[in-house]
Amino acid sequence: xxxxxxxxxxxxxxxxxxxxxxxxxxxxxxxxxxxxxxxxxxxxxxxxxxxxxxxxxxxxxxxxxxxxxxxxxxxxxxxxxxxxxxxxxxxxxxxxxxxxxxxxxxxxxxxxxxxxxxxxxxxxxxxxxxxxxxxxxxxxxxxxxxxxxxxxxxxxxxxxxxxxxxxxxxxxxxxxxxxxxxxxxxxxxxxxxxxxxxxxxxxxxxxxxxxxxxxxxxxxxxxxxxxxxxxxxxxxxxxxxxxxxxxxxxxxxxxxxxxxxxxxxxxxxxxxxxxxxxxxxxxxxxxxxxxxxxx
Length: 295
Hints:
Elements: H1 2-11, H2 20-32, H3 46-81, H4 86-100, H5 103-117, H6 140-147, H7 150-186, H8 190-197, H9 202-220, H10 222-239, H11 245-254, H12 258-294
Helix pairs in contact: 1-12, 3-4, 3-7, 3-9, 3-10, 3-11, 4-7, 5-7, 5-10, 6-7, 7-9, 7-10, 9-12, 10-11, 11-12
């Protein structure tokens, strides 16, 4: 990754050809120590700008992942345990619709309906310009709740609702589809049929038998879902003018700020690499624990 970025650095004309090796060592050392230099547009240190733009993106990603995971798993288990019923067909229809609708289209439809016609949600930003929220952690949700002003909390939730729904729709449908398929396959096993014969409710079967057995399959697909989630997050941030990395990268491209583009490429590439390694380890631990439990 550093070699690719250094090649882009050379193409920008910042490196002399006869000093490639020492310049690469210096360049890689700066990246590893998070010394990214200054922005060519604003003149601010890039690490300071990252502290402003990364927390809103992480906040939106984590909230969207939590919402889509909880609702998707719930809908998938409900649909799988009620296979061939009207409820299952509704869940299946939601999976098809949610997976087919692109996020840039659904986000603009939500703005048209709820911001322009009904006028119950704001269109841009993560907080109204009327409120000054002190930066305790950098995460708007945490900072607003620390301040404890109910009026500001309501305003923040209104700004958060539409970006969160737009971003959560596709991963929620993906979680629901994978969970439904895994639940239908699992209900063919004898221990599920035995649980029905013992008089256990579908709720108990879903919690104690289905959920714990389908989690390994769901965890193995998390890395793909999170990568797709971030690519959608860039579009959502641009559409809703959310002050995150998506808007930051877009502005840097428009301003031809190559240093910010290099920095975000390195940070995001490294983050996804570490994320994949962490999820692989987590899925292995979950699979081994499931095997030991059944053993």
